[in-house]
């Protein structure tokens, strides 16, 4: 599905990002892997090179997506090695500080927002000129449960992920005339290091209900990483052309069937963030 295509994947040293990289290589893409730590990237590069076919490139570069200059350098290096960037996967993210807002270190709160929201923004901004010049491209922004429901005691993460979806929808409209498709992906509840961080924080910091729910996710194994990775491959491929501005659940949405309903999707606000009115909940007294 991705033979002859070139992709940049952030947060690719472990977890979901590493699984996305594996699927991109298996699908034929050349990849630039980004992360903050060199050692995991080197390990992933060796693994992916063993999987790669002749001609496929596996590049790595350390970068903090919350630092615009480092993102700029990442994209410049990618474009120097690749003829173009066909796909960008904004996977880098953190949960950030956990607890009641008034008890949190505000600098940690802002730094988490910088990684989760501004990191996505910086990467999008850096690749868009090249994608416009190439006549198209794909941007895939990883979102999560914080985008569609409140997450008490994880306020930075929740606010950032909701903002990522609205940024996705907005940029999709801005780039509609450029052949660029931009979507957000909710990969499901993943049994990764982020889940371990929540569980280790304990119920007093993250709330008893959420902590119990995460314990259940870990016990059941969570959503397999390959589910989200397969959706990212689909969204990076030409099979998804025209699907843009959507928040897509990897485990729950029948996204593989969407190309057959493209016109209907384009006319609809389905799979987007929208305000729910009282009349939609049988409260006719609340609005006109």
Explain the overall architecture:
- It is a single chain.
- This protein has 288 residues and is of the alpha/beta class.
- It folds into 2 domains: 6-188 and 224-286, Rossmann fold, CATH 3.40.50; 189-222.
- It contains 10 helices and 7 strands.
- The protein has helices at 15-26, 38-51, 68-81, 106-134, 155-174, 193-201, 203-206, 208-220, 225-236, 262-267; strands spanning 6-9, 30-35, 58-62, 87-90, 137-142, 180-186, 247-249.
- The protein has a 7-stranded parallel beta sheet with strand order 3-2-1-4-5-6-7, with helices on both faces.
- Helix 4 runs parallel beside helix 5 (155-174) and helix 6 (193-201) packs across helix 8 (208-220).
- The radius of gyration is 19 Å and the shape is globular.
- The N and C termini lie far apart (48 Å).
- 45% of the residues are buried.
**Helix residue percentage:** 40-55%
User: How far do the termini sit from each other?
Assistant: 48 Å
- Rough shape? globular
Biggest sheet descriptor: 7 strands, parallel
Structural class: alpha/beta
CATH topology of the largest domain: Rossmann fold
Number of helices: 10
Number of strands: 7
Would you identify the regions where 5 or more consecutive residues have pLDDT less than 50? Answer: none
CATH superfamily of the largest domain: NAD(P)-binding Rossmann-like Domain
**How many domains would you count in the coordinates?**
2
Strand fraction band?
5-15%
Question: At CATH's second level, what is the architecture of the largest domain?
Answer: 3-Layer(aba) Sandwich
Strand order of the largest sheet: 3-2-1-4-5-6-7
Mean pLDDT score: 95
From the alpha carbons, calculate the radius of gyration and give it in angstroms: 19 Å
CATH class value of the largest domain: Alpha Beta
Instruction: List the secondary-structure elements in sequence, H or E.
Output: EHEHEHEHEHEHHHHEH
